[in-house]
Structures are given as C-alpha cells and as structure tokens.
Amino acid sequence: MWQRSSSSPAKSPDWRALLGLGGHVAGWELVRAAQVAELARMTGVIALTQVMSALALLVLLWDTSPRWQLLGWFAAIVAVMIETTRLAARVRAGTAIDAPQPVIRRVSIRSIILGLLWSVPSTIFSSTAGLDEQLAICLVSTAVIASATVTVSAVPVTMLTFVALGASGLTLMMAKTGSLFLAALPVGYGLCLAIGGLISGRAFALRKWAEIALAEKHEVVSLLLRESEDHGADWLWQADSARRLRDVPPALADAAGSTPDALDGMPLFQLLAGERWEEPGQAPELRRLLERMNARERFIDFELPALIRGETRWWRLSGNPRVDGRGQFVGYHGVGSDITEARRSAEKIDRMARFDALTGLANRTAFNEALRKAMGRAFRDRGHCALMLVDLDRFKAVNDTLGHPVGDKLLRLVAQRLSGLVAKGDTCGRLGGDEFAVVIADAADKSLIGALGERIIAALSAPFEIDGQIVRVGASIGTATGPRDGRSAEMLTRNADLALYRAKEDGRGVHRLFETNMLLRAEKRRAIESALRDALDEGQLRLTYQPVVNARDDRIAGFEALLRWRHPELGDVPPDEFIPIAAEARLLGQIGEWVIRAACAEASRWPDDVRLLVNLAREQITDPQLPAIVLSALAQSGLPPSRLELEVGERSFREDSAAISAAVDRLRGLSVRISLDDFGACASALGHIRMGRFSTVKVDRSLIVAAASRDPDALGLIRAIVALTATLGMDTTAEGAETAAEQRVARDLGCTHLQGFLSGTPVPAEDARALIASAIRRRA
To answer: Which intervals hold domain EAL (predicted)?
Structure first.
C-alpha cells in the first residue's frame, strides 16, 4: 500500500515522532504504515469488544435509564464501529488513501467519538441508576478502557485519546460521591493504563523500526552482493535529488581516478561525461540514463561510457530512487562496476563471430544479416538490391601445388582487391573457402552491376605476387537482383547461385545475371539427379559399343564402351547431360565401377585381339579406389589387362595436372593400356606424351575436321603428333572421323586407327558380338 523507502534510517525516533506530533525521521512513514496495518488487523477484536460491552450495559440499564437514550447511544457505537470496520477493510485491501498519516488521523477522530460515547454511561446514565447499575457501569467502562491498551496500543495517540476520555467520564461519576479518593482512583487507573499502553506501543514501533532498518540494510547489501555475483559490482554510489554525488566511497573514487573529497558534491553526469557534460551531443546511453533519473525510475545493469582521465571506460550502474519520511524524492543509491575489459572481450568475441578471421571480411552470418537488411530497405523504398556471388577459378590447383599457406595469402589479397572495388554502403563478405559475395544496396542501374562484375573479374584475373611467385586465378560471378529475382534472402541466394553455376558452365571467368530459365534447368537437374539415384538398381543404365578400326584394313581393333540411360518418363537422357550431374551428386564412382565391371564382363567374350576401351571421368581417375576396382573387374571377368584400355581426357591434365599424372602412373602399374582422349583440344598434355604415359593418343575431332579442310596448322599438328607417337611406340586414333574425306586425311597423315560413325555406330553388346563374328567370317 505504501512503498518502502530506499534510504536506511538515520536516527532512532523520539517521543514526538512516536506520537505523530512532529520530529519526522527518514523512513518513519513505514512504521506508521505498520501501525495502521496492525490497527486494521485488530479491528475485528475492537468491534466485538465495543459492541458486546455496549450491549451488556444496554441490558443492565434498560429498566433504569431512558430507553431511547440507551438505544441511541448503542446505535452510535455500532455505527462508529461499522465505519471503522469498513476503513480497516479498505486498508487491508490496499484501497485506502496513499499515506498512513491521514488514516491515523481518521482513526483518532473515531477514537475521540468512542471515548465521548463511553463517557455517557458514567456521566448521564449513572444519574438515574441504582448502586448495582453504577457498579456495572464502572466495571464495564474500566474493562473497555483496559481493552484499548491491548488492541490499539500500536497507535499510541489513538490509545491515549480513548483512555483519557474514558477515565474522565469515570472521574466525573466518582466525584458525585463526594470522596476525593474515589474521584482520584479513575485518574490513577487511566494513568497506569496509558503508561502501559505507551510502553507497549513504543515497543511495537521500535520493533518495526528495527525490522525496517534491517530490511533496508539487507536490501542494499543484497543489491551489492547480487551485482557482485552476477556482474562483479565494485562499489556503492549515492546521489542527492540534484544528482550530485554524496558520501563517495573510496572504491568509486579509485575507479574515477580521484578522491572521495574531490567527488563529493560533483554532478554524476559531470563524472561520466567530463567537463563538457552540460553540452548537447552526449552519448545516447547517457541521455537515456538522464531520462530514467528525471522520471525517478529504477534502473538495473545500465551500461554507459564514462570519460575517466581522458579515456573512455565502460561502467555498469544499478540504482534505486530514495524518498524521505514525507515521501519526498531525495536522490538515488545503487551499485556500480567497471566493465571495460569485459566489454572489450565481448566486442572481440562478437567480431570473431561476425567477421572472417583470415580476410577480415564479413562472414556468412554477418553477410546474411546485411543481405536481409538490404532486402528490407528495397521493399520499404520500392527499390532494388543485388547479390553477387564470386567464386575463384583454379584456386584448388593453387592449394594443391603451392600449399595452403600460399592459398591463405592469396585469399587475403583477393579480399583486399574486392574491398577496394565495393562502394560505401555495400557489403563484401567471404562465405567460406574461395567463395566471396557482395551485397549492392542500390541496384537500380543494371549497367553499374555489369560494370562492377567486369571490374571484379579483371581485378581477380590479374596476377598476384606471393612470396616471390606469380599466382594467377580468375573469377566467375553470378548475380541476382531483389526483389525481382527473389523476395527473400534465401531465394535471392539460391538464384544468384544458379547464375554462378551458369557462369561456370559457360567456361568460367564470366559474369552471368539470373534468368528464369536457369531455375527451370535447375529443377530439371534435380529431377535427373533424383531419378539417377535409382537408375542402377532398376536396370535403366546400359552400355553400347562403338568400333575402333584399323586404318590399314578396317579390321575391328576394339570397342569403346559408351554409357546410355533410358528413363521411363524422361526418355533417353544424353550422357553429356547426366554425367556432370552424377559427378556433382557423387554418384559417378558407383556408376563408373558398374561400367568397368559390366564392360570387362562383356569384353571377356570377345576374341583375344579385340580390345576394350573405357572412358574415365576426371573424378574417377583421382579416386584412390580405382586401381582396386579395375583389378577386381579384370579378375572376375578373366579379361587380360593388356586388352583393357582406359581413356583419360586431355582437359583433366589442364585442371589438375599433378593429381592426374599420379593417378595415371598408378593405373599403368596394373599393365592396362592408357589412352589420351581428345588430344589437341587444349594441347596441355604434350609433356605427358613425351614421358610415355600412354599407349594410344586419340586426336580430337576438331583437328580431324580442320585437316580435312586442308588447314595447314591442323595438318602440321597431326603430322607432329603421329611422328611423336610413332617414335614412342604409341597408336594414334583419329576420333570422330565421320566422312570419307576425314578418314582419308587421317590415313594419309599416318593415324593407325579410326573411330566414328562411318566406321561403326554405337551398338548393343549382342550387336557388337555379331560384328566381331561377321568380321571373323570375312577373314576366313
């Protein structure tokens, strides 16, 4: 009902304060509240005592006193007690007036009224009463007066009023006897009761006073201990109503780099903000604290900067408002601590959690937040933002050949170049590995996005110098614009990733913007991937065999196993469409193993002079399990290793030369033949030919077509290839010789074998066996 003061009592109460006659003491309002609460608690007993005593006199005096006076007197007592009971109920319910003093005043008035009412029997009704009735009046009145010292002693002024009036009435009644002794007897009796009641009331007040003082001290100590336990509170602080520091403890003075005397009386905000504390433009935390203190509100764990000896420190303050005995605001007290080091550690941890440790760019978490904010602004302002995903080309080769330390330095240099290209207000981040990204906050001008993409590609394609070495990489970029290409950060990221995938498909080193058909292609790819996972188990994959013939006599020298897939709903899916998907879904190893085993099993049924050619994808070649798979397939089928020829594409050497070379050497150790496929497409494996890693070199169809058109460069290159392979004892296969002119130029240039639709189309296994049988019959 009445809020507890936040200040500890400064001195013990005197009699004036006890009787409510002045001498206000800080915190005494709480004692008055306890007095009122005790009086409300005893109201039931008081009402019962008053009414039953009045009823007893009403019965005893019914025949000797005027009945209308008796009934009026009794009704008056009942009315006063009813009103007093209602007031007590309001006090207990907390709906009485806001301070205890007015309640005490109202109770005292009722006490005066009751005292006057109880003086009526002894002064008025005793005149017509007999000796027995007078004795009854005396006994009941003294009992009622005595009960007051027990029931209302908690409020001494109320008790004294009632006792004085009751004793006065008895004195007047006894004075009528003419005996001075009898007249003095009620006075002495009342005086004894008053002294006893005062002692009891004072004991009650002092006990409550001690409890309140102890609770106040406990509150302060608990606040300090709680802050010390939770946040390491260092000191207490106290300020008056003008927010000036008072009773400054040494711990606070040490934290402020001053002395208690120097700080005493200093405005709190001058301590926090320095000499310019009254000027505008202070830290927002200080402004918020000022607002809280102006509103006289409690605050807990309030963190704010403090300018201490020219250095900005961070303090945590908790404070409670204080009021005096009259309920007037007198200031604040609380606890505080210096949290500078903890805050710096938290900021460091936050930075580590939000920024990439290697490059200093925003990490994935912080970058996604920036993207969501940019999307929100775009929606709010009806504008556009853009997301650019930047992926480094050939970064894996740098890590594999030069080592991860060089790769890390390269990533830092890439981050520096990217940061230099990004405009203020945009965000550059590293998402992981060699993946970078840029959020463009204002992407209304598409030409600016295209220009930025070109600058990024040019900057990242320029050489890097690292530890005295020149390192070259490139970049592919995919961009999606929001909210047109995605109405959420997740959708925009997905579509930018699709654009990046298209950039890689288009040869890398290019920038592609998201288009709707990319999403359709991605959905088709997902459908193909899902169906491909069941293709082996459901027998949808099959092998066809394309003949490779001897250039001299068109005799079948071997067959190349070609993978085909017919899906019941998707139909015939081209290998160049599902093979890359299988590689990305990490299904190529399983499918490749099936191809090797099935092809070897089929080739074991062919004559000994017919070889089997199996093309290996780059992911298969570097699989450490491949040699074991080949050995197992050969052993199960009984096919001699010399009849198996594994084809390795020339592009594989360009992408990962060292790893491919090592894998080829492991396969050569199995005594199988190795064929270099598509030679001439990028001319990156010439050195490996000189090292004798291959049994056959297959000349790319583009060179054969150019040579058939009498291109001098193509003719010269094929002659050089044939001369080199002949010198090293290798066969040379003209791949894709589809016309008579192409076959003729291949023979004229010295190619030992031909492969193409003119020599034979891919056929099922049974048709391949029929071709072999037919060739044998012709020779016979």
So the answer is: 525-776
